[in-house]
Automatic annotation (TrEMBL):
<dbReference type="InterPro" id="IPR006094">
    <property type="entry name" value="Oxid_FAD_bind_N"/>
</dbReference>
<keyword id="KW-0560">Oxidoreductase</keyword>
<keyword id="KW-0285">Flavoprotein</keyword>
<comment type="similarity">
    <text>Belongs to the oxygen-dependent FAD-linked oxidoreductase family.</text>
</comment>
<dbReference type="GO" id="GO:0016491">
    <property type="term" value="F:oxidoreductase activity"/>
</dbReference>
<dbReference type="InterPro" id="IPR036318">
    <property type="entry name" value="FAD-bd_PCMH-like_sf"/>
</dbReference>
<protein>
    <submittedName>
        <fullName>Unnamed protein product</fullName>
    </submittedName>
</protein>
<dbReference type="InterPro" id="IPR016166">
    <property type="entry name" value="FAD-bd_PCMH"/>
</dbReference>
<keyword id="KW-0274">FAD</keyword>
<feature type="domain" description="FAD-binding PCMH-type">
    <location>
        <begin position="71"/>
        <end position="237"/>
    </location>
</feature>
<dbReference type="Pfam" id="PF01565">
    <property type="entry name" value="FAD_binding_4"/>
</dbReference>
<dbReference type="InterPro" id="IPR050416">
    <property type="entry name" value="FAD-linked_Oxidoreductase"/>
</dbReference>
<dbReference type="InterPro" id="IPR016169">
    <property type="entry name" value="FAD-bd_PCMH_sub2"/>
</dbReference>
<dbReference type="GO" id="GO:0071949">
    <property type="term" value="F:FAD binding"/>
</dbReference>
């Protein structure tokens, strides 16, 4: 299904309605006003509802900031479209004039691909609406919405959906490339929630994903284009029980207990995240406990089983909301990091793997 979008036949075709957007942001234009950049800046001039910033603009640094610090990659322009039609028009004029660009939302790409030096960054974070269909138990989301924004909006209607544990991550990128989170055992992965999508393709056309494209999006993310909207499943949920990290060095004891419990039975409402974190007293095993059910009595029973894995130095379990729980994780993560992150996927935490983790956690 094809939806109408602005095309690149000429600059006059790019004029978008602006009467509902007073006081547009005006940014200084950089020296790249020749060659392939000329038409692009003319396009921005006649479409003031699309905010943009160049390196000379005071807030350019905050717009450019991403999770991985990269002082050498400085885009020539950062644009912030507000609607899918804005994105379509941007892609069309950029492609027609051979101007390189990248797309970002949360900026957590660990390989620094969110931005390109001396190119245009299309920042989708202003396309962040949530439109809930209570009858169909679904929600339409803007492609630039962050996890924090999504869970806050859903909480207003006592709803929830699986999401990542880091509030500043872009939801669509998280979901389309798998999407593992604290509610995954209860409701499935992020990809399992996606029911519909709209994509801007390489020619600047807005396309509603058909069956084949939707299948590709569920796992291949934005490789087919810029995802400007998704429709997802949402679920009613009141309180959850959560525990902040408990300090213990007994990695082996914990994993032995978990392995035994897994062999017997683990309820889908229970999610456990273990990690080794640096704290004021040094490294410690931390366990994030989440019970996603209104049956708190059963949740406390399972908490006691988890606590029996190994001695617990501190446990702070209390009923909370999913939004408050996720937002509480924000202080645990740095705003930015140097370098990158490499991960390994394994089928099971065998005793040998646990010993390796224990060895490196003691270094």
């Amino acid at each position: 299904m094809w939806l109408p979008a602005q095309r690149a036949a000429g600059l006059s075709d790019f004029s978008l309605p602006v009467h509902v957007f007073p006081n547009p942001v005006v940014s200084p234009v950089p020296p790249q006003q020749s060659g392939r950049w000329t038409n692009f800046f003319k396009f921005l001039a006649v479409n003031p509802r699309i905010k943009y910033a160049t390196p000379t603009w005071p807030d350019f640094g905050s717009w450019r900031a991403g999770f991985v610090v990269d002082e050498d990659t400085i885009p020539a322009v950062i644009v912030r479209p507000r609607f899918a039609e804005d994105v379509a028009a941007l892609v069309s004029v950029l492609a027609t004039n051979n101007v390189p660009f990248s797309v970002r939302v949360g900026g957590h790409d660990m390989f620094g691909r969110s931005q390109i030096h001396d190119a245009v960054t299309i920042d989708l974070r202003e396309i962040a609406y949530v439109d809930i269909d209570h009858t169909g138990h679904t929600a339409r989301l803007g492609g630039g919405i962050l996890v924090a924004e999504l869970i806050k909006e859903l909480e207003k209607d006592n709803l929830v959906t699986p999401h990542g544990v880091i509030p500043g991550v872009g939801y669509v990128g998280w979901a389309t490339y798998g999407g593992y989170g604290l509610l995954s055992t209860q409701y499935g992965l992020g990809v399992d929630q996606i029911l519909d999508a709209q994509v801007v393709d390489c020619e600047g056309r807005i396309r509603r994903a058909d069956k084949d494209m939707l299948k590709a999006i569920r796992g291949a993310g934005g490789l087919l284009g810029i995802i400007v909207e998704v429709t997802i499943k949402v679920y009613p949920l009141g309180q959850v029980s959560e525990a902040s990290p408990s300090r213990t060095a007994a990695i082996r004891h914990y994993n032995n207990g978990y392995h035994q419990l897994k062999q017997d039975y683990l309820p889908s409402s229970l999610s456990l995240y273990q990690s080794v974190m640096n704290g004021p007293s040094g490294k410690a095993l931390t366990v994030l406990f989440c019970w996603a059910s209104s049956d708190m009595e059963t949740g406390l029973l399972w908490l006691s089983k988890v606590q029996a894995f190994s001695p617990v130095a501190m446990c702070t379990v209390s009923p909370t909301t999913m939004a408050a729980f996720t937002l509480a994780n924000e202080p645990l993560m740095p705003k930015s990091v140097h370098g990158t992150m490499l991960t390994a996927n394994i089928h099971e935490l065998t005793p040998e793997v646990v010993d390796v983790i224990g060895f490196h956690s003691s270094l």
